[in-house]
Amino acid sequence: MYWYHKETKHSYYSVRSNPNQMDWVLQPSTYKNYPNRFEKIELDKNNPWHGVIYYTASISTKKYYPHGTHRYLRVNPSAGALYPNELYFQARGVEGFKDAIYHYEVETNRATLLYALKETEGIEPYMGYETAMKGLLFLVSAVYYRSSWKYRNRAFRYCLLDAGHLLGSIEHAALLVPHTTNIKYDIERKKLNKLFGFSTGDTDGREVFLSGASVATALEKSVNAVQFELPYVDGSGTFEVNEMMELAYKQTSYLLEKTPQKTKANFYYEKTRLKESILERRSQRGFEGQAITKLHYTRIMEALNEPIASDCDEVVELFVVLNRVQNMPIGLYHNAKLLKNEDFSQRAGYLCLEQYSLGTQGAMTFFLLSTAKNYQALYQKAGIIGQRLYAVTSYLNIGCSGIGAYYDDEVNAFVEQEGMVLYALAIGR
Ligand SMILES: Cc1cc2nc3c(=O)[nH]c(=O)nc-3n(C[C@H](O)[C@H](O)[C@H](O)COP(=O)(O)O)c2cc1C
To answer: pLDDT (tens digit, 9 = 90+) per residue, 29-73?
Structure first.
């Protein structure tokens, strides 16, 4: 098991002896905005290519809290609504964008033009492409302090899960163009971090690239690796170094042996409802103990089991506790096979750090595990699966919540499997 994962486990005792204490004075910003001397392009969600960005990461609601404060929530979910990830993209040959490299400014729903491309250059070579790609190429980074401010050492897990959610969000928004998405984990992180101004002097490591994705088709045209210089633009306001996370990032930045997945996913979503359900998606804070149908179950499992096309497809095992699905035996399942026919609803709630309103009251509780080696790739894949679950349940009007906090070793004991417990999620009504 990767040492970082081992060191950041939660247990019944760890959460009591070492509770998270937040220093509110240091609360980081969740937005990164380039200065106004950069050209900014207002996104029009009715333009299909602008829509891919809009339906991936825009603000979708304003949430009010009892003490008079509010917060903006987005299309993509994020642990603690801290949104550690930033989205960059290259547009080539698409309507509504000049051929250029952009940053998505979430706060204002604008694309900031960072660098206008000359015809023979692009970011393709940094992402493993040999020819120019027509469409959008994405890069996902993490401004890790946004998450480590609250979650301390465990935050690298959340940066990766949230990045996976963003990749999964791209996957669904791309269906509107329509296009399939290819995930790229084998990107030249070091060169890209330098190119985008992330690794300059004192600020080195505060923002780092984690992955890429393409919503594009190959052209028969060669392309050179683009070179430019960008200033470092701070994405958190406050900052405290986390050496454990920085080390984990560096150690996992070069991929070990990798197996690509070339088969593309096939989803059945009607466009108008998909758009609506993307904007309506929310995390449900608790369920009322109502069942879902077997048809829902089938539809959900189909969406989760579709392949995820990528350059490094790590195996992620899916264990599911069924609490309330009509006409289905309750119990623990693995790969659609019933392992134990028992009422585990209490146990599922307990394992999710005693979040009983989710794990116990829900219809199904998911646990994702892996024994694979490429930590950044396998963790982001768990996030993509999580996003598929949010997307399909939102489409079907079923509630969903990601659960990043669980008792790691006790989940292992429950499913009787070793390996890293990556994520839990609950769905229900
Ligand atoms: C990786 C991840 C872990 C999460 N963990 C929890 C959790 O343990 N408990 C919980 O109530 N919500 C959890 N959530 C839900 C977030 O709090 C939620 O996404 C965020 O507040 C934004 O709200 P929204 O999803 O409604 O947009 C998690 C979400 C993600 C993506």
So the answer is: 999 999 999 999 999 999 999 999 999 999 999 999 888 889 999
d(C-alpha 261, C-alpha 75), whole Å: 27
Angle between helices 375-395 and 294-305 (to 10 degrees): 150
The total of other beta-carbon atoms located within 10 Å of residue 276's CB is 13
pLDDT digits (tens, 9 = 90+) for 324-338: 999 999 999 998 899
- Which three-class secondary structure state does DSSP give residue 212? strand
Say what the pLDDT of residue 213 is: 98
- Could you identify the residue written with the tokens 């004991």? 413
* SS3 of residue 305 by DSSP: helix
CATH 3.40.109.10 boundaries in the chain: 3-251, 283-428
Residue 68: predicted pLDDT: 86
| Statement: 3-251 belongs to CATH 1.10.1040.10 | no
Phi-psi region of 91 (alpha: psi -120 to 50; beta: other; left: phi over 0): beta
Neighbours of 208 (CB within 10 A): 23
Eight-class DSSP state of 289: S
**Does residue 401 have its Cβ closer than 6 Å to ligand 1?**
yes
Provide the H-helix boundaries in 370-422.
375-395, 408-415
283-428 topology per CATH: NADH Oxidase (3.40.109)
CA 102 to centroid of chain Cα atoms: 20
**Residue minimizing CA distance to atom 6 of ligand 1:** 403
Q: What pairing do the DSSP bridges indicate for beta strands 364-370 and 420-428?
A: antiparallel
Could you tell me the two tokens for 187?
Answer: 């990107």
- For ligand 1, pick from 10, 78, 285 the residue to mutate: most ligand atoms within 8 Å of CB: 78
Confidence of residue 18 (pLDDT cuts 50, 70, 90): confident
| Amino acid identity at 380 | Q
Atom index in ligand 1 nearest the CA of residue 73 equals: 27
Question: What was the pLDDT predicted at 201?
Answer: 85
d(CA 314, CA 261): 9
Tell whether ligand 1 has an atom less than 6 A from the beta carbon of residue 181.
no
Q: Is the CB of 310 under 6 A from ligand 1?
A: no
pLDDT at 19 over 80: no
DSSP bridge pairs for 212: 139, 184
State the first-to-last Cα distance of the chain, in angstroms, to the nearest integer. Answer: 36
**Ligand 1 atom closest to Cα of 405?**
8
